Amino acid sequence: QEALKIQEKTGDMLGEALVKAGYTTETEIAKTLCAQFAKPFVNPSRYEISKEILNLLPPKLMVEQSFIPIDKFGNLLVIAMAGLLDAQTISQVQKITSCEVEIYITTSSDVKQALRGSFPDLFDPITLQPKFETTQAHQKTAAVGAVNVPVAKAREEMSSTTRELVGIAEDESDWEALFEEAEQNVM
Question: CA 124 to CA 10: how far, in whole Å?
């Protein structure tokens, strides 16, 4: 309840609110997402991201949705984010870049640090907050850990392509098999 109140006031993702309330750490959230969705972890601030990669997408979109592209291999764009993007944003990224998207997990503070380092003019130097107002769409993102949208509902709203991208099986009734499959994908 405390984290939900923080989330309501700040517009943060639920995971960020849980961290602010002291119930978990960013690292624990990242570990959980990596295990749950069989996605690798990356620290984008340790990458030297080329201007070419950064120029593929509007900086405001990256800041609002809290992700950053880190590399491109042919038509595969690798992005780092602290949660999972909603289907609409993934579709928008694919349309803008003409690339398929591969998601790597990072912590919220790591992606924010990488964004501030890449786009310092978009952030207030004192508060470190974006200089622009975030849109209501950011506050209604249907992603795991997002504001006001339960995980089950977010999963229901995903297209089959997005479900495949984030590694969610169509039949989730066998949790043990899902975890084994996720573990194999990570290895």
Answer: 17
